[in-house]
Each structure stands twice: as structure tokens, then as C-alpha cells.
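assembly run, all chains below
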Amino acid sequence: MTNARGFVAINVEECKGCKLCVTACPVDVLHLAESFNTHGYSPAEYEGDGCTGCGVCYYACPEPGAVTVYKNWAEAQVAYICQNKKVISSLSLVDPIKGIAKCEACGEQVILSNISNLSFAE
Ligand code: SF4
Ligand code: SF4
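ok done. output:
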């Protein structure tokens, strides 16, 4: 990823496709997907690169849990605590648009919009 200080993960099933985050993003790295979620909305989607971690989209979004912003993605990636092996691990991106990473310690996929269930070292 180039120039990406931050990272944004959209929980597509919580998104109503209102586009407020798309309009609010100062660096224009969000758009609405061409696909639909199970509620029939086209959810917001990250371009996969360029997020600064500013958090504007998070504050613009009316849907709790739809937007997760990692303000310092580089640090978060190397401070991930593996829930299976209980060790400090690291994350590698599998799909930056869908917000899916892999835990390097156990190999399991991690949903990055599920931040309340993820742990990071200080
Ligand atoms: S955190 Fe800022 S730069 Fe990143 S997607 Fe949201 S509004 Fe755009
Ligand atoms: S502001 Fe929230 S609900 Fe609206 S499109 Fe963006 S993520 Fe979806």
C-alpha cells in the first residue's frame, strides 16, 4: 500500500449505502460497491489504498458498527494478538477492499471491521 497511514474496514451488512462517508472522505478513497448486501443496499467500499486514518468517515456514518478506522495501520498490523495461540502476531492483508487479513501465527482470517473482537498489543 502506498502512502496509506491508516486503514478503513466497512462492515457491509451494517452499511445502508447512504454515501455520507464517500462524500466526506477528504482523500476520496471510498465509493459505493456495485454489489448489494443482504438488505439490498450497495455498501461503501474502500479503494484498498490511500486511507490516512483521519476518522472523518467514522464520524460521518450514522450506522453504528459500519465503519472501523485504524489510525495507524502499520503499528496495528505488527501488534495483533492471536486469539488462538495467545501470542503477539502480525496481520497480512488478504483483501484490502473487503477488509480481510490473515493472522500470521495461526493462519486464520481476520475480519478487520470486527475491531471489538480483535486485540492489539500496546
Ligand atoms: S479514515 Fe479518512 S482517509 Fe480513511 S477512508 Fe475514512 S475519511 Fe477517508
Ligand atoms: S456513511 Fe455508513 S451507512 Fe452510509 S455508506 Fe458510509 S458506511 Fe454505509
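The mean pLDDT is 95.

The chain has three helices and seven strands.

not gonna interpret more than that til we talk
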